[in-house]
Amino acid sequence: MSDAWSAEEFTARLRELRTRYWDSHPFHLRMHAGTLTKDELRSWAANRWYYQRCIPRKDAAILANCPDPDVRRVWRERIVWHDGTKPGEGGAENWLRMAEALGLSRDEVLDERHVLPGVRFAVDAYVTFARTRPWVEAVASGLTEMFSHGLMSRRLADMRARYPWIAEEGFAYFTARLAVVSGEGRSTLDLVVRNCPTRERQEAAVAALAFKCDVLRAILDTVDYYSGTRP
């Protein structure tokens, strides 16, 4: 069996996947350029909702598979962040507020009438991955957090500038997420490095992160293909 990579080399292998992140997707580039129509933004928000609502289910699967109580104590906070501690709170609620600011009704987002089959397939595959793979691989798949802070900062600035018709409360998801995503990325990376002592586990972690990048790009591929046709 091959020798394990050093922590530095392992980290470098994970960071190399930065080029596969969805920030360079043509749909995102048009979003930041301010050339998306209102219908295109609404379609994006309605479909991205399905991903947002499934994140706590993914995290719950990690909790169910993880035997380490210290990890579980930390990881459960992610579910609380998305679901809140009561109705009307949390990241999912903030996403609904953005959808409303874009002109969608809460009901049409919640009943998922606009969710495209390709988006549903990709997101469901991600949840299934978290349920069926070792917990540390599921955690590693979430290392897209390492790449998201810059994208989120740029998106917030560009959407405020390019789409001034969006009410400020519509950006609550991004402003709240910016406060935590950088720290989550660092802590998740440390967790993966500590729990992948063998080359086999390290390679599986890299493959998991690559899979997550593919899931994210598949979501945008689908939305981009149907761009402007729904809702």
From TrEMBL:
Biological process, per Gene Ontology: pyrroloquinoline quinone biosynthetic process
Domain of life: Bacteria
Signal peptide range: none
Record's keyword terms, sorted: Oxidoreductase, PQQ biosynthesis
Statement: the UniProt record of this protein carries the keyword Oxidoreductase: yes
Principal EC category: oxidoreductase
Residues of the Thiaminase-2/PQQC domain: 12-221
Pfam family, one: TENA_THI-4
Keyword check for Amino-acid biosynthesis: no
Gene3D superfamilies per UniProt: Heme oxygenase-like
InterPro entries: Haem_Oase-like_multi-hlx, PqqC, PqqC-like, Thiaminase-2/PQQC
Pathway: Cofactor biosynthesis; thiamine diphosphate biosynthesis; Cofactor biosynthesis; pyrroloquinoline quinone biosynthesis
Reaction catalysis annotation: 6-(2-amino-2-carboxyethyl)-7,8-dioxo-1,2,3,4,7,8-hexahydroquinoline-2,4-dicarboxylate + 3 O2 = pyrroloquinoline quinone + 2 H2O2 + 2 H2O + H(+)
EC numbers for this chain: 1.3.3.11
Role noted for this protein: Ring cyclization and eight-electron oxidation of 3a-(2-amino-2-carboxyethyl)-4,5-dioxo-4,5,6,7,8,9-hexahydroquinoline-7,9-dicarboxylic-acid to PQQ.
PANTHER family: 4-AMINOBENZOATE SYNTHASE (PTHR40279:SF3), PQQC-LIKE PROTEIN (PTHR40279)
Annotated family: Belongs to the PqqC family.
Descriptive protein name: Pyrroloquinoline-quinone synthase
